[in-house]
Amino acid sequence: AESFDEECDYLFKAVLIGDSAVGKSNLLSRFGKNEFCIESKPTIGVEFAYRNIRVGDKLVKAQIWDTAGQERFRAITSSYYRGALGALLVYDITRKSTFESLKKWLKEVREFGSREMVVVLVGNKSDLAHHREVNIEDGRSLAQLEDLSFMETSAKENLNVEEAFLQMITRIYQLSC
Ligand code: GDP
Ligand code: MG
């Protein structure tokens, strides 16, 4: 594992977005494991975490912002998105309403995010398949329509979490380095 303050070649900012309680914070702490550092800025209602990742022969430091429960407060929106090159857009496969909100989130991404922002659509809580309200095909076809990557994850069972973040970070790297 790379240490937190090791020299890095690139620094990327990415954001977590999606309705409350879809599992954003759990995805982030799962992605972090021990090589992780969480800082918070309670004043603006965000938390962020760093992790160093090797992409090819480069060391990339990903700084990932989380909304710390401020999803409904639009005031933080522009500072939240400023400079972000990627986003994980998360819904909960057991709550259809969180999938229906994606339209609103995508509108916000287009309004506040950079034009080339890499967005990975994430259907979280795949371990709760018996309570599923959103079919995997619906996630997949929305992603296709909106030109996003797509993955179902379980933060609880650590399924596909690493893959979702790495896909976003690798894609950012390919586009901007
Ligand atoms: P946030 O508001 O989007 O940051 O969501 P949280 O990370 O706080 O999670 C909201 C709730 O969903 C918590 O009770 C978590 O324990 C639960 N949760 C998060 N991810 C998963 C998951 O993959 N599977 C299950 N079963 N529960 C999860
Ligand atoms: Mg949270």
Automatic annotation (TrEMBL):
<protein>
    <submittedName>
        <fullName>Golgin candidate 2</fullName>
    </submittedName>
</protein>
<comment type="similarity">
    <text>Belongs to the small GTPase superfamily. Rab family.</text>
</comment>
